[in-house]
Amino acid sequence: MKRLLSIVIPGLLMSSLYGQDISDVTALGTTNLLGTARYQAMSGAFGALGGDLSALNNNPAASAVFNYSTFTFTGSIYQNRNVARFGNTTSVNRDTNFELNQAGGVLVFNNRDQKSGWKKFSMGFNYDIQTNFDNDIFISGRGAQSVADYFIANANGFSPDDLSVLSGETITDAYINIGNSLGYNAQQGFLGYQAFVINPSGSNSNTYVSNAILGSGLEQEQRIITRGTDSKFTFNMGAQHNSNLYMGIGINLHAVDRRKIVRFDEFNYDPDSPLQYVQFDNELLTFGSGFSANAGIIAKLGESLRFGASYQTPTWYNLTDELWQAINTDLLNSDNGQVELIEVYPDVIYRFPDYSIRIPSKYMASGAIVVGKSGLISMDYTYQDMSNARLRPSNDPFFAEQNSLMNQELKAVSSLRLGAEFRLGAWSFRGGYRFEETPYQNSNAIGDLTGYSLGAGINFGGSQLDFAWATSDRDRNQALYPNMNTQAGINTELSNWVLSYSIKF
Questions:
Q1: Other CB atoms within 10 A of residue 289 CB
Q2: Residues near 243 by Cβ (< 8 Å), separated by ≥ 6?
Q3: What SS3 string covers 79-139?
Q4: The pLDDT value given to residue 444
Q5: Which residues contact 435 (CB under 8 A, 6 or more apart)?
Q6: Is the pLDDT reported for residue 194 higher than 50?
Q7: Does residue 500 or residue 401 have the better pLDDT?
C-alpha cells in the first residue's frame, strides 16, 4: 500500500511537467462550453437573454428573466479526439465519457404589490461542470533528445552522496529524506541516478552525463491520461424592476478534483548503449476549492433589443498536489551481454505544501435581438487579462518566477459567442459559433479556439426537452519533459452530445 507523506519545508515545489506553474493556471482559466442543451446549442451566448440555468454563469441577472419557477437537469457525452504529431509520426487517440453535468433550479416570487416598481424576485441554485479535464493523449515517434537530459538538469549541483541510498535506508526512505532535506530537484536527480539513467561525469563530480548512446533511431512514447472536473456551485439572487430592467448577484463555489497520469517510454538506443530502455511513471492528484462572485444587469430597449453587462471577480483557488513516481530501466551488462532490469519504486505518495491560484476577473458585454416569439439572435463579448493571474505564496522563489513569466508570456483574452434560435410552434431550432483567443503571447504554445454548435428543443407546456451538439478545435505544442527541447504538436477536437429536461411550475 502506498504511503502518504506531506512536505513541511516551504519552497519544495514541482517542476512544470506536473503543476503549480503557468500551464496549471491556464488549465483552470480556460473553461469548456458546458451547461444545459439550449445553452450549448447557442454556444453560450446568453448574457443579454437570461432565462436559462447555465446563463447564470454569464450574467446573474439571468434568473430574474424567468417567468416561472424552473428546474433543469442535463447529461452529456463528451468525446476528445487528439491528433499528436511527433517526429515523422502521427498518433490519433479518442476518449469518451458521460457526465451528469448540470442540475439546478430557479424559484420565482412575483410581487403582489402592484404599486411597486419591483415586479418579481428570484432565487437560483445551480451545479455546472465548468471544466471537464477528462482527456487521453498518446504521443509516439522518433526523438533527438533523451529523457536523461531531464534527470541531468535536476541532478547537477548535487554530489553522488546526496543522491545515494545511505546505510540502513531503503529506496523509499532515501526518496523521502532527499525530498525533505534537499528538495524536489534532488529527488528527481535521485530517481535518474538510482535507475542508472545518468552517472557522475567524474569522481566526486557534481555534474552528470547520460548513460544512453542515442544512435540514429531513438523511439519515445508518452501517454497522458487526465480525469476529473472543476465543478461550480452557484447561489443566485435576482430581481426585475418595472418591465425593462433585470439585475442579479451570484456567489460561486468551486470543487477541483483532477488526476493526471503520465507514462513515458524511451527505447531503441544504440546496440552498445549501457542504457537500453527507460519507463518513467508519474501520477499527480490535484484537489481543492475555489470562490468567486459576480453581478450583472439586463436591460430591454423596446420589445426587440436587449443589452447585458456583467462582472465576475477573480476566482481564488486553494489547492493541494499529491505526486507518485516510479522508474524502471533495462541496463546492458557489458561483462556478459545480458540485459538487467532496474526498478526504483519509492512506493510513497508525496504531498506538497498547499498553494493558491488567482484567475483574473472577467468583464462581459452582451446584446440580443428578439423577434417576438419567432426567434432571436444574441452575442456575448468577454474580456479577461490572463497576465494578471497569480500563484501564491508569492514569496516562494519558484512562484515568483512563474508570476514574472505570466506577466511576460500571457495576455488579455477576448472571446466572442454568437447564438441564434428559430421557433416554429412548439419546436425551437438553434445554432451558435464561438471564438476564444489564446492566453499566450506566442500562439505556438496554445492556439486560438473555434467552436460550432447546433440543437433543437420541444416545449410541452409544463416541461421542455432540449438536445444539442457542440464541437471545438484547438492546437498546442507540448514538451515531453522540462529541460527537453523536443515538442509534440497536438490538435484537440472536443465534441459534446447534450440532453436536458426542464420542468416549470
A1: 12
A2: 119, 300
A3: EEEEEEEECCEEEEEEEEEEEEEEEEEEEEEECCCCCCCEEEEEEEEEEEEEEECCEEEEE
A4: 83
A5: 415, 416, 448, 449, 450, 451
A6: yes
A7: 500
Q: Which residues contact 16 (CB under 8 A, 6 or more apart)?
A: 22, 23, 482
User: Which residues does 298 contact at the CB level (< 8 Å), separation at least 6?
Assistant: 47, 48, 49, 50, 59, 61, 62, 64, 65, 245, 246, 247, 306, 307, 308, 366
92: Cα separation from own chain's centroid: 21
E-only strand ranges, 111-212: 118-132, 135-142, 198-200, 208-210
> How far is it, in rounded angstroms, from Cα 37 to Cα 72?
10
Q: Do residues 410 and 387 lie in contact, with contact meaning Cβ atoms separated by under 8 Å?
A: yes
**Averaged pLDDT, 214-231:** 92
Length of the chain: 505
Q: C-alpha grid cell for residue 30?
A: 480556460
Measure the CA–CA gap between 442 and 89, rounded to whole angstroms.
Answer: 25
Question: How far is Cα 481 from Cα 168, in angstroms, rounded to an integer?
Answer: 33
- Partnered with residue 398 across adjacent β-strands are none
Q: Which residues contact 161 (CB under 8 A, 6 or more apart)?
A: none
Write the CA distances from 492 to 135, 220, 383, 420, integer angstroms.
Answer: 10, 21, 24, 26
Task: Please report the DSSP string for 395-437 in residue order.
Answer: TSHHHHHHHHHHHHHB-EEEEEEEEEEEEETTEEEEEEEEEE-
| Domains of the chain by start residue, with CATH | 3-146+212-504 (2.40.160.60)
User: Average pLDDT for residues 126-139, to the nearest whole number?
Assistant: 94
Residue 392's identity, in one-letter code, is: R
Q: By CB neighbour count within 10 A (0-12 exposed, 13-18 middle, 19+ buried), where does 88 fall?
A: exposed
Please report which helix (H) or strand (E) contains residue 287, including its range.
strand 275-301
* Residue 360 vs residues 388, 391, 406, 434, 439: alpha-carbon distances, Å: 6, 11, 12, 21, 12
Identify the residue whose cell numbers are 497522458: 224
The beta strand positions in 133-271, using DSSP E, are 135-142, 198-200, 208-210, 219-241, 245-267
Spatial CB neighbours of 363, under 8 Å, sequence gap ≥ 6: 310, 311, 382, 383, 384
CA atoms within 13 A on the CB side of 265: 9
504: DSSP letter: E
The grid cell for 205 is 563530480
Of 453, 496, 497, 489, which Cα lies nearest the Cα of 45?
453
pLDDT at 248 over 90: yes
Pairing of strands 348-351, 245-267: unpaired
